[in-house]
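Project outcomes to date are best conveyed with an example. Our students and postdoctoral researchers have been running inverse folding experiments weekly, and each run begins with a structure described purely in tokens. The record below, which covers 197 residues, was selected by the lab manager from last quarter's runs and is presented without edits.
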């Protein structure tokens, strides 16, 4: 069933209880497209980016995605292809790295991890006030736009989601094998809702 943007906005709610049902791989691809899909001839994307630097990187922790092995995947920025980086079940350690050990991290069908390259924008906007902070601020703004895109696309796909931003940066980066300048910014936990939305 197609819904309008206004309907998606009205129905967007944080969901923290997920059903066992797997999500189709096609649906995961659609969420990733909503996050960072290329939509313009000059590489423009679904979400805006300051100076079109595109400093965000996505990873997917797949647990119940039909047709996709469980594991951690890096999303290739150009074609949005998924490249497996490990098959270990990282959910327990990711839960521990988050504030309050939230069980929705373990229960989600998949988690789209929004990460930012904090160095490139910091350098590019070094001459703009507040010196040293402007580039970083832009990365956070961009991550917010991407998070909203994912949540709205999730609604359109009849899925629920929660943006988890409360976690130890260091412990989360460690679990996911991220190295500087990449920093984890948001964990978008997605799945079929186990509650009335
Ligand atoms: C920046 C940010 C960080 C958040 N971090 C968490 C989090 O760590 N854990 C969580 O359960 N929800 C988190 N949320 C979800 C909020 O709690 C939720 O959006 C809020 O309660 C409003 O509910 P709604 O999204 O249904 O409108 C976060 C939301 C935002 C925007």
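After processing, the design step wrote out the following sequence:
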């Amino acid at each position: 069933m197609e819904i309008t943007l206004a309907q998606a906005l009205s129905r967007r709610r944080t969901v923290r209880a997920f059903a066992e049902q797997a999500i189709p791989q096609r649906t995961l691809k659609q969420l990733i497209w909503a996050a960072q899909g290329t939509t313009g001839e000059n590489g423009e994307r679904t979400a805006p980016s300051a100076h079109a630097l595109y400093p965000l990187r996505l990873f997917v922790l797949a647990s119940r995605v039909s047709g996709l092995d469980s594991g951690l995947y890096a999303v290739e920025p150009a074609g949005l292809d998924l490249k497996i980086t490990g098959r270990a079940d990282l959910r327990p350690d990711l839960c521990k790295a988050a504030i309050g050990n939230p069980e929705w991290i373990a229960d989600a069908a998949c988690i789209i991890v929004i990460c930012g390259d904090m160095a490139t924008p910091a350098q590019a906007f070094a001459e703009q006030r507040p010196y040293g902070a402007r580039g970083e601020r832009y990365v956070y703004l961009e991550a917010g736009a991407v998070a909203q895109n994912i949540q709205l696309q999730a609604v359109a796909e009849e899925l629920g989601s929660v943006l988890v931003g409360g976690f130890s940066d260091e412990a989360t980066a460690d679990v996911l094998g991220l190295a500087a300048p990449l920093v984890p910014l948001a964990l978008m936990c997605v799945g079929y809702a186990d509650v009335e939305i």
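The domain at 5-191 is CATH 3.40.109.10 (NADH Oxidase). Residues 13-14, 16, 102, 162-166 surround flavin mononucleotide (CB under 6 Å). The training component of this project remains on track.
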